[in-house]
Amino acid sequence: MYISPVLDKVVGDLLKSSAEFPWPKDEPKYRDSWVTAVKRDPAMLRESAITYGEGVACFFYDLENLGNSMSFIREGELPDVLRRVNGGMDAYRHNFKELRRGLERIKAILSVSHPGNISMDDLRGIARSQIIYREGQHDIGNIVPLNYYTPGDIDEKSKGMIFQIGTHLAHVGKGGANVMETDGGLTSECSLRHRFADKLRDFFDSMIEGGLQIEYDGYAGEHVVIKADEGNLYRCFYNLAANAVDKDRGGATRLMISASRRDRYNVIEVADNGKGLPNRKAIFHYGKSGAGGSGLGLFITSQIVEAHGGTITAVGRNNDPTYNGAKFTMRLPVVQKDRIHYPTMF
Fold first, then answer.
1. Which of 314, 307, 242 is nearest to 283 (CA)?
2. Which of 93, 109, 124, 272 has the greatest count of CB atoms below 10 A from its CB?
3. Which pLDDT tens digit goes with each residue over 305-330?
4. Residue 76: which region, alpha, beta or left (left: phi > 0; alpha: psi -120 to 50)?
5. Phi/psi at 184 (nearest 5 deg)?
6. Residues 291, 248: contact at Cβ < 8 Å?
7. Domain residue spans in the chain?
8. In CATH terms, is domain 185-340 a member of 3.40.50.300?
9. Three-state secondary-structure class, residue 228
10. pLDDT digits (tens, 9 = 90+) for 228-250
């Protein structure tokens, strides 16, 4: 059986916090009632783990639906779009509270369970859901400023920003849902330029003052088409670009996405003109990051690439005078299955 050191680390943190669960000292019968309930229902932990995972999947589906609703704005619909944004934030807050309650329930169960009755498979499932949810939480921050908009505040530039945020959320929401689903995500033919490079340029142009200049170079001057789980491959490119442009980490203003065909692989290089990366293999490890990072983005990126049967490597300082920051190289098989499965991701 595949044993993930990443999941086991998160499981260890979960067990530690469960051992310190704050039962009310002035109500000992409350804890006793949980002891009785767990003894009566040995499947309580598994049921709670499933419910927690379903809640994380719902979060991503809600993110995708919200993004889609923001991506199509007809004349006169702007007030409705803003209401949908506000409704989406309300749904997120409700979902956040429910997931937090669910995790507290899991900790309570663990704190009164005999170690021999605890399934490691259940614990690893909970840990996996936690990691995926933490990565998805970063994206919800993009719509927070829209909560303060009124229809009178919106000009053409703002409409463009709403559209670009919606497109971004729809992609990452679909990708996250695919990771959570047992069946994984369907693959499709994706233009490297139109589906990824152009979308990222438009997104960062709308979100960052001065934008991010993204150049594209396909092999033989052609538009490279890649078969992939589009939402999750978009997540990979977005994570690389977000690291590059972040002032505390990359500070880049320019990004080059280039592609070449080597044997049975599409080789994609993403280089920037920022500060570069720590030149170490651990950059893709869980919890490892440059300054100010969460240690999730590059780890998730590497896992998605590997699920596609590919590899990703990094150079801390590129030798190109124009793009002399970090350079990432992804090797993705030209031939892909109809679905990308993520059962052993992490």
1. 314
2. 272
3. 999 999 999 998 888 888 999 999 99
4. left
5. 75, -155
6. yes
7. 5-180, 185-340
8. no
9. strand
10. 999 999 999 999 999 888 877 77
